[in-house]
Amino acid sequence: MSATATTPAAVAERLARKRRGLAWARTFEGRVGLAILVAVALLVTVGPLFAPYPPNEIGVGVPLATPEGGHLLGTDQLGRDLFSRYLDGGTTIVLVPLAANVLGFLIGGLLGLFGAYQGGRTDAVIARVFDLLIAIPSLLLTLVLIAGLGTSWSTLIFVIAIVTAPRAGRVIRGAAQTVAVNDYVVAARLRGESVWWVLCREILPNASGPIVAIFSLYLTYAIVGVSTLSFLGLGAQPPSSDWGLMVAEGRDVLTINPWATLVPAFSIGLLAIAFTLIADSIDRRTVGNEA
Amino acid sequence: MSAALSIEGLTVAYRLEGGERRVIVSGVDLELQAGQVVGLAGESGCGKSTLALAATGYRAPGAEVLAGRSLLGDVDLIALKERDLRKVWGPRIAFVAQNALGALNPGTTLERQFKQTLKAHSEARGEAIRTRTLELLDAVGIPEPDAALRRYSHQFSGGQQQRIAIALALASDPSVLILDEPTTGLDVTTQARITAMLGGLLADRGVAALYVSHDLALLSTIADRMVVMYGGQVVEQAACGEALQRPRHPYTRALLQAAPDIEGRRQLLGIPGRPPLSVQEGRCAFADRCTMAVEACTTHSIGLESVGTEHLVRCIRATDPALATPPRELTAKRRETEGTPLLTVEGLVCCYSRHHEPAVKDVSVHVEAGEILGVVGESGSGKTTLLRALAGVIAPVEGTIKLDGTELAGLARQRRPEQRRDLQLVFQNPMSSLNPLHTAADTLRRPIRLFRPDVSRREEQATIEGLLESVNLAPEIADRRPTELSGGQLQRLSIARALAANPRLILCDEITSALDLSVQAIIVELLRDLVTRTGVSLLFVSHDLGVVRALCDRTVVMRDGVVRETAETEQLFTAPGDDYTSELLDAMPALPTA
Fold first, then answer.
1. Which residues of chain A are within 8 Å of residue B493 when distances are taken between CB atoms?
2. pTM value?
């Protein structure tokens, strides 16, 4: 950004700084998590192109065929190719929790940040609202909301966002509070900077470590949550090929074709583990950096 | 007479994260005699604390003793097993740390803490333990020892906690006591009382003590011998008076010239640069910062030579008589100011909450244009609160703050932009006052954009470099982040940020208290220079009377939220008009005059 920035030393320094920012990716957990994530991302994005059959077409094979019969994962009761359905069904399990998490973090984060910045009564009210929402068991809250709003992807996103928001907000508020007491925040307020500027330029970037870590972690919860709801019949609806729904449909034929259940279930678990590992490594790196 | 503790050729290294080994202390020889206090001085990072800890046999995580012995009588603490060390620690050698609260168990009462120590290390049992505890608490000056026994450590003040830590260290009657900056961070009057108490106790009990401190004036009040360390080596060792009045090593002399002195008004000379990160072999470690260095200083290793009775110096020019250049005396006369009040404060009252007593009660002061006004006081005097109210961090409950005759709103955001520009605050802790993610240029750019419409985007870069130059920072600093800068550089950057707004009054909140004396001196001279060059006024809050004497034109003394005295600085120091001012002056340790 300035004339001196082009010297080799300055460039090397900047690179070193960047490397420090991604230090978590060099830890063992970080690498494993990242590898799984890349694999699943490829499966979800490119996978559908390689599907041998249209995922929802009935009767492409004999109903309830086992993997030996030419279909990689066999077929379901309606004779749909399970491998094609598996390749197609991963999109929602990644996108829905992601969207729900982003929404939840936006709502909770904004409230938490504002509370930490403002302090006093505003902060107290926001904190108590968070506590109140967290006190309601999340599954109960979800079921009640879905019962009232019906089942659709947008409802699902909204419901999970509502569950995530107070939890995310509480963590972000805590992280922001430790940053907000710093004198550089006071200095910014004394300059007459706007609330928005102080939050986005002074507080948020310095609180980002724990926030990113907790985002990864809550993504895991959201993935498991979405799958659970789909399994219970409250999330993805037939004829969707969602992995959670596949597990639910496959369990009836568990003895005939266990792969129909195990492969999507295992994939959900793997995805959740990937995000947990990443959350863990980021968390550890940020803690280490502060010391 | 044989020494109570004799350290021989102690060399300590730290292993860094990457596996690299860094030698921190090298070949230190030191003897502690019974009943004698040895002062260990030097800047931070010179290996003082590492040496003090290693001498007790304590193995700090990552630290490794490469060579040497630490003989307690005929027992080598370095070679001793952890299990055996525990039998020595306490009854024979004890350690008092800087942070007393951290050294005391927060979960139990004083009675139990003393009981545990006395049970482990003495014959006393039952009622004898209680009697002994009361004696100890009384000896260190804890009021009402009986009641104190039932209290927890956090219920005592900082000074009392340190007294308790000392009592606990003395409980097992050690023959050697190591004290690592035991009074740093305490108020001057508290410090004076603790040091006096400690001096008496050590002499009475015939304890051999090593007293680590960066404060030469303080050491002169308690130490018999003085050892000065630089870059992990002893550079000078002599009787206390000799070392301070006739220092032979340029480093000792530089430290003395950097130390603020309450006895006279003189220029503070800082030491540019930083101590080396590890021991420098085959050369003088101080040569890079030394004004008297010659070529030979860097070409071969320099040994510790005797230059007088028990006076050792590690310098090839130690006996050169031409070296002693005393610091410039400053004229006692105050600088000419216009005499027009810039900022007027009347009847100011500030409260942090309705349930508490006001931190500032009815304070009236004024700052003249072009003036440096000092505000001194101990912790709890309300000096920082006053400053925060002036800056608009907190709103006063009562009273008025007028800038050029116009009343200012309580909070900064309610003030007009030009009023915000005119008053700039510099914070105490340089680490927390700069955003760790912003480069120096980012930090300076913001106030320029907000308060300097005259500076176009194109001129910004030049303005930033100009600001860095005005606080003696190299232009390369512009791309650095706070973590890549030293404490002194950070504080200079903070001052540059205040200057960037083109203010008329800079409010300084203890801005040198987190810095080494050598760096403090540089900042003080920088401020004086800035005021002379730019005509900006300064309100300088400090607990250090020496710094105030060196810098300020007028001084306000505060206590318990009220102004006790306002006077011309020289008058305040030579003829204090208030009892409390005299008390403060008496408590400040003074350097012996040559």
1. none
2. 0.81
